[in-house]
Amino acid sequence: VRLEESGGGLVQPGGSLRLSCAASGFTFSTVFMTWVRQAPGKEQEWVATIYSDGRSAYYSDAVQGRFTISRDNAKNTLYLQMDNLKTEDTAVYYCAQRGDRPRGKGTQVTVSS
Fold first, then answer.
1. pLDDT tens-digit profile of 56-91?
2. Is 66 left (phi over 0), alpha (psi -120 to 50) or beta?
3. What are the beta bridge partners of residue 17?
């Protein structure tokens, strides 16, 4: 299993970012996928999960209505569109197979004015 996150950066409150996760080493299209995040000094936090076919997804209360998880099974890629970002969204973001630990290095998202 190989997962590589990208797309993070520094953004002002209210701004947007789109994260990507390139997957390889497994049959991506058959697996539920998840985004999680970890802020400094805090426990890892689940963000969102998407069904293997991409037809349904669910979100934590903290990001519901602001973040959108999606996937392109033809490209073996998972996405997280983050809108109306808040300072409390600052964290390292990881993608993972549902139920598995993150395997990549993550991508840093910093929301600050």
1. 999 999 999 999 999 999 999 999 999 999 999 999
2. alpha
3. 82
